[in-house]
Amino acid sequence: MYRKPEVPAVKSVLTIERLAWGGKGVARAEDGRLILLSAPLALFPGEQVETEIRWKPRHGEGDVKAWVRSDRRRAASGCPVARTCGGCDLWEGGRETSELKRSMVVDLFARALPDAPEWRWLEAPEDARRHRIQLHWTGRDLGFHRRGSHSLVPVTACPAATPALSAAIPRMKEALEARILPTRPQRWELVTGTPAGDVWAQDEGGRTWRLEPDGWHPAQGGVVHRLGEAVLAHRPGGFFQVCPPWAWQAFGEILRAWPLPGGTLFDLYGGVGFFTALLGSRFQRSVLVEFDGPAVEWARRNLEGTPTECVAADAAEWAPESLGVPGDLILLDPPRTGLDPAMCEKLHTAGADDLVLVGCDGAMFCRDVARLAPVWKLVDLAVVDLFPLTTHVECVGRFRKG
Ligand SMILES: C[S@@+](CC[C@H](N)C(=O)[O-])C[C@H]1O[C@@H](n2cnc3c(N)ncnc32)[C@H](O)[C@@H]1O
Predict the structure, then answer these.
(1) Cβ(62)–Cβ(52) under 8 Å?
(2) Is residue 154 within 8 Å of 262, Cβ to Cβ?
(3) Could you read off the pLDDT of 343-367 as tens digits, one per residue?
(4) How many angstroms separate the CA atoms of 376 and 354, rounded?
């Protein structure tokens, strides 16, 4: 069998010029060729790092082996597993994390959205913490997956999560060891409401337990979030915003500042009703479409008493050829993969003149802006640091027909 000859890695010291989308450091070889560098816990422009370059046909790649000169603003870790656990790629960015992330978005838009309107960046508040984490139990240890692998990093706390969730980790381990919770190796969802306090655990089989002062008890019911005037509940393993209070505040700020119409709100990929609850009072009526049946049941309960119709369906299949009329708003918040081509086709013939697209993967968002471009013009754009300490952001765009 023919084997491609291995290109030997070349040891080098390089200077980071800037950050690329995704958090890689961009450096250049002496001959000007581009090199992309990976490091756990953030890279700062200007830092000098030691690496071994692996050359590809058009560029080089390398992992940072050591820092020759590190930025003074780099924060001391403060988390014993930050370097190995895959949860917080920008942990050592410290106070500069927001600026580092903003610069990654600049890099993305320069390449993928060159005609973007001026955009607004919303920095996460310092106290934004995760209300949902995914833990793995091996039968002996409880923890997170190691960066880039499925092996385990045992943890006893998580400073990126709310204090209530973090404190529940050792209590969960005790209960697993005591066989109060099922002992088979599996993935667990740990989730808390808003304000953070009650803690729920769900196993892979969908069974749920609630943490009471005397330990874990099998429980039915939903995790409750009190956000402004709204009360939204969902099943413990179901989708909900990771930092709900911050998401509520950020989306509220963005969408209140935009001139939106007031006819029908089509809340597509609506989950348990987050956007209808946030915006619904500004519209005559709302239609929420979501394909996860149990989420739709929760949405019906959450939005009871409001003029909302909740439909369990695939959004693209449900959408008619001519969705809405002028004066209506189509709001789409699809999963990370973004809008599928069938949905884009339906949007090309929509009757509404206003559209808002929310995207939690910046690259997919840019692709979807291009897919919508034959009919929809991006007029307002905001980017939110909705997932602090990670390289992920939420993009929110307002479009007008024409
Ligand atoms: C990013 S979440 C947004 C949920 C909601 N807008 C919120 O903010 O809580 C995406 C949602 O789309 C749903 N979904 C995924 N694919 C879908 C499809 N083809 N049709 C309808 N809903 C879908 C998922 O179940 C999930 O609830």
Answers:
(1) yes
(2) no
(3) 999 999 999 999 999 999 999 999 9
(4) 9
Residues within a 6 A CB radius of ligand 1:
239-241, 269-271, 274-275, 289-292, 295, 314-315, 333-335, 360
Name the residue with the closest Cα to ligand 1, atom 11: 269
Q: How would DSSP label each residue in 135-167? A: EEE-SS-EEEEBTTSSSEEE-S--TTB-HHHHH
Q: How far apart are CA 330 and CA 353, in angstroms?
A: 9
Rounded to two decimals, the pTM is: 0.94
Q: Cβ contacts of residue 65 below 8 Å, gap of 6+?
A: 49, 50, 51, 52
- Summarised one tens digit per residue, pLDDT across range 255-280 is 999 999 999 999 999 999 999 999 99
CA distance 71 to 147: 23
* DSSP per-residue codes, 224-289: EEEETTEEEEE-TTS---SSHHHHHHHHHHHHHTS----SEEEEET-TTTHHHHHHGGGSSEEEEE
Give me ligand 1 centre to Cα 333, in Å.
Answer: 6
Q: Is the peptide bond before 40 cis (omega within 30 degrees of 0)?
A: no
